[in-house]
Amino acid sequence: MKVEQFRDPYLGIPWGELGARVLVSGNQVGVTLGYPTLGRHDELAVELAAFLGVERLDLEVQFVAPAGRGFGKVKHVVAVASGKGGVGKSTTAVNLALALDAEGAKVGILDADIYGPSQGTMLGVQEGRRPEVKDEKYFVPIKAHGIQSMSMSYLVTESTPMVWRGPMVSGALQSLLSQTLWDELDYLIVDMPPGTGDIQLTLSQKVPVSGAVIVTTPQDIALLDARKGVEMFRKVDIPVLGVVENMSVYHCPSCGHESHLFGTGGGAKVAEEFDVALLGELPLRIEIREQADGGTPSVVADPNGDVAATYRDIARHLAARLWALDADAPEITMDDD
Hints:
8-stranded mixed β-sheet
């Protein structure tokens, strides 16, 4: 068996076909992958050793994001969307951004919910803090928990209502996109407003979006709207990387009983219907909401917890899907001593 024949655990495709660069020297293996895998390194080493039929190996994994179809210094733009509000889309978006950062990627987040921006609060950015302005024209993103961020909430006060018509909202989004000086980014996560309206169309027309993630809950009404979200992105030729099912199960902290309060298997059904990946399922837990509302989302509040582990797994999965879309021809180097 050769390293390049190892099937990626998320994609089921041999690394060689994905364009992974491989260097082998004795029991030392170096692999360059197109998605970050810091949180899965040890497990990956065990799986690869078993595949090669050896007791152990020294694995070094490097991450280089594929060129993508982004803009400026941004390699990939990933839209996190939902067909309706109340499904935990913004909480999912910020945790996925932080998870990608924890996995070893350079990450930014753009709050595209002009009417109800929330990322400033979720990232713990002090109210009233404004981004630095450069050359009297460009905004410098505010860094929080290691990632770059930009939001309309940084430009207005919490008491300022956005009483704007559609064209004004679209113009505001274009300004945030074109006037933000993002530093080198592997991924820019865009927290979309709920629905399928002006903002979604503006983003698809003005920005080279690499892919979209649909967030839903298992309940029937949310699934109906999730289907609309998938169809919308397909109509504007944006690949849907997969579905995240939020609030999938409730574990009683007192007795340990599991309850599927909003139904079961809905996200998997939508994913199967549209032939996209089910990226992961997140539990219904009050601490997820409390941690985001408190400015320290789960991935940074409890980095070793099972919720953070789930977010990081979903983050690796969606990044792997992007790699599969953009993978180059194999470039494999073998050096046997």
